[in-house]
Every structure is written in C-alpha cells, then in structure tokens.
C-alpha cells in the first residue's frame, strides 16, 4: 500500500482516501509543481485531471475546457472529493500549461503510465508521424514547433517523440526516435519520405521490419517496383509472365 499527502483542495477525511496507485491521477500527482506555495489556490493534479476530462469530451481550446468544467463543477467536485465546487478561469489553465508544467517531465510521466498498462507495447505496427503543434507558428512565419513521434495506432499512444529542429527535417530526426525504441519483431511504417536506405538499414539492424510507401520522391525505386510486380507484355498466343511473388505452380490442365 502507498500513501500520499492529499492535494490542497481535497477534503481531508479522517478515515483516509483511497486512490488507485496505477491511475492517471496518481501519475499526475508525481509531477513537480513549480508554483510558490503561497500562490497555489488549486492543486496541479486537479487542474490536469480537469483538462484531460474536457479533452476526452471533445474540448480542444482553453476557453472550451474552462466552460466545460464550469458547467460540471459540482459533479466534478463530488467525484474528486474537493472542498468546494469552484471553477477555474481560463487564465489558470493557460498558466499551468504554459508556465508550470515541465514538458519533458510530463511526457515521461504519461509515457510511463501507458507503458505500465496491461499488454502495452505488444502491438506489431509502429507509425512514424510528424505534426506541427497548434498555436506555435508566429505571425508572419510559416514554421512552428514540429514534433516527430513513434505512434502505436492499435493502442492509441505515443512511444517516443522528439522535436524537429528548424534546420533539419523528419528524415534526419527519425533515427533519433528509432534508436530509443525496441524494434524487435516490430513493423515500422510511415510516409513516403521515410523510404530511405539508411533508415531502413537501421530498422533491420535493430531486428525490425519496415513498410514504406514509395512515390515520385524515389522515382528510380518506384520504377523498379513497378517493373518487378507488373507482368510483361506478351505476344498473342503465349501465356503472360506471372508477377513476382505469385504462385509459380502450374495449374493442372483438364
């Protein structure tokens, strides 16, 4: 059994309070709160739980999150055993996400939470995918903060991700992601840009396999594949050549 000090906005029950030590709430409770003790009106873990619940309900903007919590503050306070059913203003959420949370620590805690779930990481396919974070493109510019992630689509969580620097691209960032993963008996897939010899070699050396989409960015490779898998033209009266990989056994004639 594990014990923890209740957060500042939770009712203190003499009989104690039971929290699943494997829950996301317990994981968030481990995060460092950089706010000064005298300036804390709301517990960090409570605000983060509110944000997650609102996100799961479809709210993707801070104002929407704030309003979603406001309309449900009584039910949420009861569920979380809070002292008062008070709603946080939008600036509270903005301050927590923008100034209080250490991104690397937060990602590590969330990653460890998902990795600890039953059967986590056992799916076969790992997808490489890059996205630019919303709201990070300054006015007058075209580029914002871009992340490349290794994603498990069958399980719905990110194994690992790195920030793509301004002077690099996803191709050069991909090796940094893959070297941090156990690729044994995994199949890595992604956009056509990842169809690169060195990246494919890295995956193979790590015990994994890969499936790439090949487009015009690899014109010679695409042409080789088309020639390999398409039957050759034949003269009338002759049987066509079977494509590569087809069953080479003769069909019995009747």
CATH class call of the largest domain = Alpha Beta
* Helix-and-strand structural type: alpha/beta
In helices, the fraction of residues equals 25-40%
Please give the largest β-sheet: 5 strands, mixed
Uncertain segments are 1-6, 250-254
State the helix count.
Answer: 9
Overall pLDDT metric: 83
- How many E-type strands? 5
Shape: elongated
Question: Would you mind describing this structure in some detail?
Answer:
It is a single chain. The protein contains nine helices and five strands. It has helices spanning 24-28, 44-56, 62-71, 73-80, 90-100, 103-115, 170-178, 197-205, 219-229; strands spanning 125-132, 146-152, 157-164, 187-190, 209-212. Strand 2 and strand 3 form a beta hairpin.
List keywords for this structure.
single chain; 254 residues; alpha/beta; Nucleotidyltransferase, domain 5; 2 domains; 5-stranded mixed β-sheet; 5 strands; 35% helix; elongated; disordered N terminus; disordered C terminus
How are the SSEs ordered, and which strands pair?
Layout: H1 24-28, H2 44-56, H3 62-71, H4 73-80, H5 90-100, H6 103-115, E1 125-132, E2 146-152, E3 157-164, H7 170-178, E4 187-190, H8 197-205, E5 209-212, H9 219-229
Parallel strand pairs: 1-4, 4-5
Antiparallel strand pairs: 1-2, 2-3
């Amino acid at each position: 059994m594990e014990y923890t000090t209740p957060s500042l906005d939770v009712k203190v029950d003499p009989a104690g309070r039971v929290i699943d030590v494997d829950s996301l709430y317990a994981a968030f409770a481990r995060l460092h709160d950089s706010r000064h003790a005298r300036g804390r009106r709301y517990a960090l873990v409570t605000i983060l739980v509110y944000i997650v619940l609102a996100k799961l309900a479809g709210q993707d903007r801070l104002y929407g999150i704030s309003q979603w919590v406001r309309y449900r503050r009584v039910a949420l306070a009861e569920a979380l055993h809070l002292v008062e059913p008070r709603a946080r203003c939008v600036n509270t959420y903005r301050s927590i996400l923008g100034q209080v949370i250490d991104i690397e620590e937060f990602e590590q805690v969330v990653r460890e939470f998902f990795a600890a779930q039953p059967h986590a990481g056992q799916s076969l396919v790992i997808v490489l995918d890059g996205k630019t974070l919303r709201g990070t493109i300054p006015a007058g510019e075209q580029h914002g903060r871009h992340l490349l992630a290794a994603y498990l689509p069958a399980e719905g969580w990110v194994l690992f991700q790195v920030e793509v620097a301004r002077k690099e691209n996803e191709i050069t960032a991909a090796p940094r992601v893959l070297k941090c993963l156990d690729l044994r008996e995994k199949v890595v897939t992604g956009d056509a840009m990842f169809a690169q010899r060195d990246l494919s070699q890295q995956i193979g050396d790590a015990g994994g396999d890969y499936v790439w989409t090949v487009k015009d960015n690899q014109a010679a490779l695409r042409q080789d594949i088309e020639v390999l898998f398409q039957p050759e033209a034949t003269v009338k009266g002759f049987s066509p050549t079977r494509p590569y990989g087809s069953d080479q056994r003769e069909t019995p004639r009747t």
